[in-house]
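Need the bound structure for guanosine-5'-monophosphate, inputs here:
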Amino acid sequence: MNNLASDCLFCRILEKKVPSKKVYEDALCYAFEDINPQAPVHVLVIPKKHISTTLELAEGDNALMGRLFQTANQIARQKGIDQRGFRLVMNTNPEAGQSVYHIHLHVLGGRHMHWPPG
Ligand code: 5GP
Ligand code: ZN
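Answer from helper R.:
Posting the output first, comments after.
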């Protein structure tokens, strides 16, 4: 049994059926450049396991979520934005702006981030 959902864009990216610009990969996570960057650095970090929203996270996913954040930190260091600052965002459901239903951590940086977010 695999963890991929055939109708999911990010699962298709994981299967290499849709091209992406890889930033990082290991056994559990994949990171790639956002196709429509909202900042000079805009990378998406996803689990290789298909999880549609944060509401579907199970107890067994706790370590995986930690790995997503560790990966985001590593990307921030690699891109040279760790000390300046960066923003990690995960949108859940329509009013938050979630458009792809495979959880993804946005790593945004390289410019001043506004608060509150839009
Ligand atoms: P959401 O709106 O769900 O939080 O974020 C989805 C993100 O995926 C958006 O920032 C959007 O630009 C990005 N995205 C959508 N389709 C593609 C794609 O085919 N390739 C890549 N690299 N990013 C995508
Ligand atoms: Zn998926």
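Comments: The CA atoms of residues 11 and 76 lie 24 Å apart. The two ends are 40 Å apart (CA to CA).
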